[in-house]
Amino acid sequence: MASSREPVTNEIIMAALDRVADPERGKSIVALGMISGLILRDGHVGFSIEVEPERGPRLEPLRREAERVVGQLPGVLSVTVVLTAQKPPTPAAAQAHAHPHPHSAPGQPAKLAPDVKAIIAVASGKGGVGKSTTAVNLALALKALGHSVGLLDADVYGPSMPRMMGLSGKPESDGKKLQPMVNFGIKCMSMGFLVPEDSPMIWRGPMVAGAIEQMLRDVNWGELDIMVVDMPPGTGDAQLTLAQRVPLAGAVIVSTPQDIALLDARKGLGMFRKVEVPVLGIIENMSYFECPNCGHRTNIFSHGGAKDEAARLGVDFLGEIPLTTQIRETSDGGQPIVVSDPGSPHAKAYLSIAAKVWDKIGGGKVGRAAPRIVVT
Ligand code: ADP
Question: Domain 10-98 falls in which CATH fold?
Fold first, then answer.
């Protein structure tokens, strides 16, 4: 990629993109109005190319060409281009989506990861509550129960799967699809494998959804009983779009006792209900503190809040996980507790949660029928 001190501008980028033609329409992608969400920050460029969903798989060369052309501009340090099969959701579009049933909705539903029987989301109202730690241990527990499992790190803002799953390096490609990275028998994909850690990423809602869609569609996931998606934290537009576009069989909400008190978890619940994704239940993480020396249990926060709140909201309570150094050290060290100490009470807690989740999605058979996305 070229670099110089000349400042690059939106106009220069658009002029360069104007020379890239949609191969099927013979016109420039700028003239066709396909560029959206252009962001330029300190030489880092990001934008989406809006395409009809059915053309998405064919247009990867176009995406690469746009990336190449912009990457050659003086002053451009990095370029992130995603194909997006949908315009950013407007409130009207989001509302329209909330009603039609996935199977009867108009438009061209395209299958994402068609051989995955059920996709579940692990979400939280805000960051830092242990969502990724829970997603990883839940995935490993599902594997330990004998299921074939995939793990998709959709937390593009702070991808932690590579570290937590003890994976590094780049996924291989067969020219068409990327091979997922594998450890502990789990197929894994994360933006963390695709972009260098030091390259700052600029994300906007539609780009997040586009990138995640690509990680579902362009990765050779093969047949899986279940895929666990570690969602971006929070309940903003990006999360909503994602919940709409990934064919979720259900969602699990991770919450700390304080998070419950602050009603962040309630927002997460509301978001999934809005898009008709069944909420499988709430997990209380960092529920109480367990002393590493004597095992003494201290309820630092108001332990049990999640259980009461779940009951009030009519959602199942899936279990509680304590705050322990062992959980932190094992997940941050790439040896999550479910694999590094499977006999421990904490690993058993994850296994019990996994069994409930598996049960709730109908043993992977039911889900929401065939995974589909709906384009509004
Ligand atoms: P999130 O995905 O919600 O941002 P992470 O899973 O990355 O949160 O967790 C944030 C930090 O808290 C990590 O260092 C992780 O190891 C630690 N952590 C998560 N759950 C626990 C727990 N139950 N006990 C101790 N540390 C935990």
Answer: GMP Synthetase; Chain A, domain 3 (3.30.300)
| Identity of the residue numbered 245 | R
Residue from 283, 287, 331 whose mutation best tests the ligand 1 pocket (most atoms within 8 A of CB): 331
pTM for this one?
0.72
Residue nearest to atom 17 of ligand 1 (CA): 328
Encode pLDDT of 320-350 as tens digits.
998 888 999 999 999 999 999 999 999 999 9
Does ligand 1 have an atom closer than 6 angstroms to the CB of 102? Answer: no
Instruction: Give every strand in the sheet of 44-50, ordered side by side.
Output: 35-41, 44-50, 78-84
pLDDT at site 260:
64
CA dihedral sign, ordered 81, 201, 268, 148? positive
Residue 144 has pLDDT above 90, yes or no: yes
Contacts of 197 (CB under 8 A, 6+ apart): none
Q: What is the pLDDT of residues 59-76, one digit of tens each?
A: 889 999 999 999 999 999
Q: Which atom of ligand 1 is nearest to the CA of 124?
A: 3
Counting Cα atoms < 13 Å in the Cβ hemisphere of 166 gives 16
Residue 131 Cα to ligand 1 midpoint, Å, equals 7
What CATH architecture applies to the domain 119-360?
3-Layer(aba) Sandwich (3.40)
Positions of CATH 3.30.300.130 in the chain: 10-98
Cβ of 130 closer than 6 Å to ligand 1, yes or no, is: yes
Ligand 1 centroid – CA 336 distance (Å): 11
Q: Is 324 in the pocket of ligand 1 (CB under 6 A)?
A: yes
**Separation between Cα atoms, residue 152 and residue 93, nearest integer Å:** 26
Q: Is 132 in the pocket of ligand 1 (CB under 6 A)?
A: yes
3-state secondary structure of 229: strand
Q: Tell me, what's the pLDDT at 364?
A: 56
Where in the chain do CATH 3.40.50.300 domains reside? 119-360
